[in-house]
Specification:
Layout lengths: L1 H49 L4
Length: 54
Amino acid sequence: MIFLAVTMGFFAESYRVYLNDRSKEKEYIISMVEDLETDSAFLELSINKLIPYH
């Protein structure tokens, strides 16, 4: 019985860590997309300054 309780505790802890990691993963992806949007806007602005259109 103790073995079953310890095993279930192990699985519960693993599942909690899994859910926490998924949450962090979503936050990191959102942050990465925001950074890419900022960087591409800055790059476009820089290119337009360096190579003006006639």
